[in-house]
Amino acid sequence: MKHATLRRWVLWGWFLVLGLPVIAQAQAQLGSAAALQAKYDAVQTQLDRNAFGRPLVLESTEASGQLSGDIFAVLSHPFDQVSSSLSQPGVWCDVLMLHLNTKYCAVRETGDVRTLAVSIGRKFDQPLSDAQRVDFVWQTPTVAADYLSVRLKADKGPLSTRDYRIELEATPLGNGNTFIHLGYAYAYGVAARIAMQGYLATIGADKVGFTATGKDSAGQPDYVGGVRGVVERNTMRYYLAIDAYMDAPKQLAQRLATWFDSTERYARQLHELDRDDYLAMKRSEYKRLAMPLTEQSQR
User: Fold this and answer.
1) What is the pLDDT of residues 98-133, one digit of tens each?
2) From the centroid of its chain, how far is CA 181?
3) For tag attachment on the chain, is the N or C end more exposed, with fewer CB atoms within 10 Å?
4) In angstroms, rounded to a whole number, what is the distance separating the alpha carbons of residues 153 and 136?
5) Radius of gyration of the chain (CA)
6) Segment (H or E) for 204
């Protein structure tokens, strides 16, 4: 009985730290094109020279029961394309579905309220009845000629998690590229903390993030672990999903392959399963999206 209980808590921790596409009090949105441009100027040296091999800055924090991650990056796509795509809730379902733990996503409307109904599960094909549901409220985006702001929020999730947020800002750069800020975070209580500790002490013990805290005895980077590593991995996964979507907004097969191949560039942090297994799982999950609701829970 004790072993079964421990396993259940570890799996809950697995859902919390690997699967939930969520954020709480991340770095506040900068709030305007001018502020976002000023941030771009401030981090330009880091964008040009970093360990990622792409124009990207990743930050993370852990404090007072909250985890947050922020990415500042340059997308090689014009702002008007980025804005017209990422201001649509259905596109965000396509973005979230690239994550290996997102099993289902659909836009729902109740009166004037739009939500993204998201189901999170394990890294293999499974019935939706075995997944966990989180409903994100879609807030009306701010869309201007030089600025985009998108926000999704969920007040609560499994166990004692709460205040989920996903926030994106974008502004055009002068060379046809777009500068973005992606925020990812959530708050958690005692139950979620225990679940995450169980995961990190067992099947997640060797997982690391991207921030180097020094060098190990062999002179290699010593990366942050624990819950900060969790946030950094998932922040990167969702940034790569946005980039992959913009590369192939109409071609699902190309989009899936691009996302997986991009994550494999950072295999130390992000590798979870083989390419063929990922592609087969996602093809099955996309087929389920087209099924009637009465059939979806059985698949």
Assistant:
1) 999 899 999 999 999 999 999 988 888 888 988 888
2) 13
3) N
4) 5
5) 19
6) none
The Cα–Cα gap between 116 and 98 comes to 15
Quick one: how far is CA 229 from the chain centroid?
Answer: 13
Two tokens at 84? 């017209």
List the alpha helices (DSSP H) in the chain. Answer: 2-14, 33-48, 79-86, 89-97, 190-201, 226-247, 252-264, 267-270, 275-289, 293-296
Residue 70, CA atoms < 13 Å, CB-side half-sphere = 16
- Of 249, 258, 265, nearest to 282 by C-alpha is 258
Sign of dihedral through CA atoms 33, 87, 81, 179? positive
Q: How far apart are CA 98 and CA 129, in angstroms?
A: 20
Cβ-based neighbours of 10, under 8 Å, separated by 6 or more: 195, 198, 199, 202, 203
- The gap from C-alpha 282 to its chain's centroid, in whole angstroms, comes to 16
Tens digits of residue pLDDT in 153-211? 987 666 556 567 889 999 999 889 999 999 987 666 656 566 666 766 676 668 898 98
